[in-house]
Amino acid sequence: MIRRIFILIITSTNCLFGQKTIIKDSLSNIPIENVNLNFKNSGASSNENGVVDISLFDNDNVIEISHVSYNTKKIIKKKLGVPSIYQKKHLYFLQ
Asked: Does residue 11 fall inside a structural domain?
């Protein structure tokens, strides 16, 4: 019973103080710094640990996730892979 209450408190605290996710490389599983998340005029960027606060977005917002070295993707906030979002690198072929 006490364990269930503790888990409920932890979950409630997360909702009150923000929602965070980590952006990681899909192959190496390493956090990615400076990933941009945007919806209309709202935006956020991941820190040096790949952590980004997504609480400013509503659940039905389509968020664009972009980084210069990775493919851009669009995803609805409620479908985000919390606690982690995985990005695939761009592939460049030189001729």
From this structure: no
Domain that holds residue 63: 19-87
Over residues 79-94, mean pLDDT: 72
Q: Which of 89, 91, 62 is nearest to 75 (CA)?
A: 62
10-64 confidence digits (pLDDT tens): 444 444 456 898 999 888 989 999 999 999 999 999 999 999 999 999 999 999 9
C-alpha closest to that of 23 among 91, 70, 90, 78: 70
How many CB atoms within 10 Å of residue 95?
Answer: 2
Answer yes or no: is 31 within a domain. Answer: yes
Residue 5 lies in a domain: no
φ, ψ at 66 (rounded to 5°): -140, 150
Helix (H) / strand (E) containing 38: strand 36-39
Query: What average pLDDT score do residues 66-70 get?
Result: 92
CATH of the domain at 43: 2.60.40.1120
